[in-house]
Design goal:
about 150 residues, mainly alpha, about 70% helix, about 0% strand
Length: about 150
Amino acid sequence: MPHKYDVATVLERETQATISSWYALLEAEPELAAIRLSREDRCRHLPDMFRDLVIRLRNPLPLGTHALLSVAAQNHGRLRREQGYTEAMLVEESRMLQVSIFHTLQLHVENTRSGVLLMYIMAIADEVDSQLAQAMTSYISEATLDVDPIEA
């Protein structure tokens, strides 16, 4: 019988494959692909976000609890604003990340301890949404700086 892994370990081991899956989805979306970025620039934030996600899965919080502050998510929001993303594009990018994560888990479900899989899926969605909220906050903060007059 093969060894069973927790979801955090599966995501940790499959981070690069999941990022590749996400990148393929993103590149197939015309609106997002219209923002010309190298693969490195588009994916730069993801290893840190996956690290934050794995930490969250290994240190569970009640669902709906504000997750730990994610510097990666905050930097991501600011960077995407500078790169020309709209708010809707940021949300779509995050949705595609959840799809890619869930696809990875589907591919490895036979190797996971499935008794608690739903709990982990809910925690993943909660964490990804929390990171999106943090990215949106920094995105909007940057937008405010763009329109506020600078006083001498």
